[in-house]
C-alpha cells in the first residue's frame, strides 16, 4: 500500500521512514494563511486543534486535486499534516524570523505549552469516491528553566527554529532544551504515528501493509 505525504516537512518524512514507511512526497500548494482567514471569516477564530486539522485536510485534498489536474492518480492513501504550538492561549506557528524565534524562546523558557498536530488521511484508491478522515493529537512540552540567553542566541543562529511550529524541535538541536514531554513524542515532531495507524485502520488498511520491507529478525 502506497502512502503519499502531502507535506514538505523533513521531520515528518524522517519520522515516517523511521517507522518503516517510505512515503511518496507530493506537492499541495496550500496557502495556509489564506485558508485560515477564509475559514475564520465564516466561523470566527479557530482553536488550535481545529486549525491544524483544517490545514491537514486542505493539504491532503489539494495534493489529490493537483494530481488529477496533472493527469495522474495517487493510488494509495494520502496524508496531510499541520502543527501549531500554544502557550498562554496564544497559537504559534513558524516564526520565520530570528527576532520572533528569540522572543518566543524567552517567553517559553521554563514553561509548558501544548503542541497540536492535525492529520487527514484520504483513501484515494478509488479515484471516483475518495474517503477521508482526520484527527488531532496533542502533547505537552516543558522547557528547561536553566536555558541561558547565549544558548538561545546560538540556537536561533543555527536557523533550525525558524521554520518549525513553536520555534523548536525534539528530533534535532532543540531537544537539548526540553525537559519533559507528556503524550506521544511523534506528535511534537509533526506526525503522530499512532494516530496515523488508527486512521489507516478505520479506512480498512492494516499498518504493516505500509512497511517498505519486512522488519529485521
UniProtKB/TrEMBL annotation:
The UniProt record lists the keyword Ribonucleoprotein: no
HAMAP family referenced in this protein's UniProt entry, alphabetically: Maf
Cofactor(s) this protein cannot do without: a divalent metal cation
InterPro entries with a match to the protein in the record: ITPase-like_fam, Maf-like
Keywords noted in UniProt: Hydrolase
Keyword Hydrolase in record: yes
SUPFAM superfamilies (alphabetical): ITPase-like
Name of the featured protein: Septum formation protein Maf
GO MF annotation list: nucleoside triphosphate diphosphatase activity
NCBIfam families per record: maf (TIGR00172)
Pfam families: Maf (PF02545)
Provenance organism: freshwater metagenome
Amino acid at each position: 500500500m502506497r502512502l503519499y505525504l502531502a507535506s514538505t516537512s523533513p521531520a515528518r518524512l524522517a519520522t515516517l521512514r523511521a517507522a518503516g514507511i517510505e512515503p511518496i512526497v507530493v506537492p499541495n500548494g496550500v496557502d495556509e494563511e489564506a485558508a485560515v482567514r477564509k475559514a475564520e471569516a465564516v466561523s470566527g477564530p479557530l482553536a488550535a486543534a481545529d486549525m491544524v486539522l483544517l490545514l491537514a485536510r486542505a493539504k491532503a485534498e489539494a495534493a489529490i486535486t493537483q494530481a488529477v489536474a496533472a493527469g495522474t492518480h495517487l493510488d494509495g492513501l494520502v496524508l496531510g499534516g499541520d502543527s501549531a504550538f500554544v502557550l498562554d492561549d496564544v497559537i504559534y506557528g513558524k516564526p520565520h524570523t530570528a527576532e520572533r524565534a528569540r522572543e518566543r524562546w524567552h517567553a517559553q523558557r521554563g514553561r509548558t505549552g501544548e503542541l497540536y498536530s492535525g492529520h487527514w488521511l484520504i483513501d484515494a484508491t478509488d479515484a471516483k469516491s475518495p474517503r477521508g478522515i482526520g484527527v488531532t493529537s496533542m502533547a505537552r512540552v516543558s522547557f528547561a528553566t536553566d536555558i541561558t540567553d547565549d544558548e538561545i542566541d546560538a540556537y536561533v543562529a543555527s536557523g533550525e527554529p525558524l521554520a518549525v511550529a513553536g520555534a523548536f524541535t525534539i528530533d534535532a538541536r532543540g531537544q537539548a532544551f526540553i525537559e519533559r514531554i507528556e503524550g506521544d513524542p511523534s506528535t511534537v515532531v509533526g506526525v503522530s504515528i499512532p494516530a496515523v495507524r488508527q486512521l489507516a485502520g478505520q479506512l480498512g488498511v492494516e499498518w504493516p501493509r505500509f512497511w517498505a520491507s519486512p522488519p529485521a529478525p
